[in-house]
Amino acid sequence: MRRVYLPLTKDVVKTLRHGEEVLLSGPLLTARDAAHKRLVEALKSRKQIPVSIKGETIYYTGPTPAKKGQVIGSCGPTTSSRMDLFTPLLLKHGLLGMIGKGERSKNIVSIIKRSGAVYFVTIGGAGAYLSEKVIASNIVAYRELGTEAMRRLIIKDFPVIVSIK
Fold first, then answer.
1. What are the residues whose beta carbons fall under 8 Å from the beta carbon of 12, sequence distance 6 or more?
2. Alpha carbons 48 and 151: distance in angstroms, whole number
3. Is the peptide bond before 7 cis (omega within 30 degrees of 0)?
4. Which CATH class, in words, describes the domain spanning 2-164?
């Protein structure tokens, strides 16, 4: 299995192959539906967003609260197609990677490919296992959204498969 370090670069994305199993390590952002909606509303209104997404990877997850002694609670992927409405504008503003589960619409597949970005899938139903791959977690935006607040995670050997690139 190949190791890839975040943040991604266009050069690294170019080397990835469809179906390749990868272990990701480094920093990424988390965001689900509510955070995506706020980011896109801000970008459409030409307001500054709370975190830069240029060159970032967003993991579609809303982790459960951490239990005592844990960095993070269960953090499995959410269904990615729910983010399809927001994806084109985020890619236009520099988003380079996405992690989730499930299919994307044909239109989004085309947009991801044209933008030189990558969509990874990870194991649905394995949130407890995936939480063990998180070594740090901090809320960076939209704290009032609770589990859907945006976080910056530091991950180590987080298993994904290249689905679209």
1. 4
2. 18
3. yes
4. alpha beta
φ, ψ for residue 160 (rounded to 5)? Answer: -140, 165
CA 46 to chain centre: 23
Residue 93 designated active-site: no
Sequence letter at residue 85: L
Instruction: Return the pLDDT at 92.
Output: 97
DSSP E strand stretches across 20-149? 21-30, 57-59, 97-100, 118-121, 134-141
Residue 50 CB contacts under 8 Å (≥ 6 apart), including other chains: 140, 141, 142, 150
Tokens of 64: 């459960």
Token look-up 């955070």 returns 35
Positions of the chain with pLDDT under 70: none
Among 32, 36, 104, 151, the active-site one is 36
The span from the CA of 122 to the CA of 72, in Å, is: 17
pTM above 0.90, yes or no: yes
DSSP conformation class of 96: -
Burial of 66 (0-12, 13-18, 19+ CB in 10 A): middle
pLDDT of residue 19: 97
